[in-house]
Amino acid sequence: MSHLHRLSTIAIVGLLSLVGAGTGSADPVASKENAWSPLTKAATQIPTDPRERRGQEVFEQRCAACHAAVPKDMIGPPYMPAMAGTQALQARYKGAKPAELEQRTDLTPPFVAAIVRGGLNSMPFFRPTELSGDDLTALGAYLARKH
Ligand code: HEC
């Protein structure tokens, strides 16, 4: 490879990463357009408290892909894959607790924070650069809400 060619390659790579940074494409999952939001919520399922409402949004963007409720007749192709988290919690609690996190009434903010920051077996952990401290607080408030 000639010197000039190598230099121009570096310049192009540099330019591409600048463009990426400018459009915020470093974290595509965080954008509304790309977020996984499998089921639309009824108005009564949307919390009135703004922090819990934010927590619900974060849940839809970051957690629902594994922890959503899936109607039994919609599991498997061509509809939706079974949710890894929901299935794992069904297998662990065997109905003693709801398999869907949003149905639980025993979750506390510190427990949610510990799992989210540390991960659990096949559940990945989330760094503060992926899920901010404020969003984690909102998530804890949402999952521990009275319902
Ligand atoms: C890639 C799939 C995946 C994603 C994304 C995911 N989880 Fe999980 N989660 C799991 C699995 C699988 C388990 C069960 C792990 C086990 O018990 O072995 C789990 C377990 C949990 C538990 C433990 C519940 C209990 O009673 O033990 C909590 C709390 C939890 N997840 C919260 C979250 C939150 C909040 C998010 C979003 C920030 C999230 N998870 C995102 C897969 C996922």
Task: Tell me briefly what this model is.
48% of the residues lie in helices and 0% in strands. The chain has 147 residues and is mainly alpha-helical. The protein folds into two domains: 1-27; 35-143, Orthogonal Bundle (Cytochrome Bc1 Complex, Chain D, domain 2).
- Rg, nearest Å: 19 Å
Average pLDDT metric:
79
Helicity, as a percent range: 40-55%
Measured between the Cα atoms of the first and last residue, the distance is: 65 Å
Helix-strand pattern: HHHHH
Class inferred from helices and paired strands: mainly alpha
Low-confidence stretches: 12-25
CATH fold annotation of the largest domain: Cytochrome Bc1 Complex, Chain D, domain 2
Strand content: under 5%
Number of strands: 0
The ligands found in this model are: heme C
**Which quaternary structure do these chains form?**
single chain
Largest sheet: none
Kindly give the count of domains. 2
Q: What CATH first level of the largest domain would be assigned?
A: Mainly Alpha
CATH homologous superfamily grouping of the largest domain: Cytochrome c-like domain
Task: Based on Cα principal axes, name the global outline.
Answer: globular
Number of helices: 5
What's the architecture of the largest domain in CATH terms?
A: Orthogonal Bundle
